[in-house]
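TICKET #2291
ISSUE: user wants both folds in one file
ATTACHMENT 1:
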Amino acid sequence: MKGPATVVPAASSRLPRTEGCGLTHSGCRRERNEDAILTDPMGQLWAVADGMGGYGHGDVAADIVIDQLETIADTADPAAILVARIEDANAAIRAHARRAGTDRMGSTVVALMIGRAVAHVAWVGDSRAYLLRMGRLCPLTHDHSVVQALVDRGEIDAAAAAAHPEANLVTRAVGAADTIDVDAGTLCIEGGDRLMLCSDGLTCCVFEPAIERLLADAADPYGACLALVRAALDAGAPDNVSVVVVDVVGG
């Protein structure tokens, strides 16, 4: 288990500062960890990428996504740059796949960039972002997956989605096609908020009520990450598990 952590001093007493941590684990059944995480020493940029093992070279694809995101300058416009860097990662993965002689290589991603009390989130696939505010958990992303499409059409409910045989199939991935459609959103943040990014290795075996409780009970981001990863491992963790937790302080 590896866990880079950052603590950042406030640039202004009027704006909140962030404290964060990330942990990633191979899980109970996988020999190789094909997830990758990004935590920013400046406290502005965070990401989780989940390489698709069934596509081959999943760990490489996830690393390419993180490599592209970590080049973002602190002064960049978050709304534009997150989408642009994910599009760059898509092109880089496609080029690597051609050199490797494979036509299937990909990764999901969820990325968070915080600037001037606004959280910008961009994602592709079923890696997720959540907000915990006043003890209540709220999703900030909407899965690009086969089962989510079934739920959206009213063909199955959320309870059935978790046990569906195609629960692990995504409808979008970075590197899966020459072009990519990236979803993005923004949220005004305030002191006391806790943000979480995760791969589906967490949400496939630790469900939202438990995530809400564990996030609310933890004293700090590291404790939250550790509790969530341990809960996934206790539940059997059939996939790699990655979690990033960011606290908003002050403001």
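ATTACHMENT 2:
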Amino acid sequence: MNDERAAWREQRRRAVAGQAAALEADRATEVAQATSLLTDFVRRAAERGLPPATLAARSFDGRATYRTRLRGWYLKANRSIAVGEDGQYYVLTVASSLRARFTGAEPVSSPPRLVVGAGGGDGETMPLARLLERRLDAGVVWP
């Protein structure tokens, strides 16, 4: 009986490990594809003469806006998502900070996804490729 339980546990452990490895491989593929889209966007924005803007970050509660050292292009009208000049993907929300009021915030890049907002539950999902095209099509004028 104990041998059967041990064998079953080992089988389950291997199955879970296999699923985790497959999910990680899928995620790595998605990040690579999204990174390629961002790199292409930066190139195309330069070709079209779209100047990068100095990016600002907002606090999680939305009450404060902080300067950043980043330059790039906002992808959403609410300025919560951006692509940096370096081709990195930034979610521009940060923790509230008195220090950041004076020195600025330092958002870190996030692994990009092919569907922006996926898993967020707020109903505002959009393919990254579509967001990038909309931004390019808007030209210099952006909300």
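RESOLUTION: both attachments delivered.
EXTRA DETAIL ON ATTACHMENT 2: The two ends are 67 Å apart (CA to CA).
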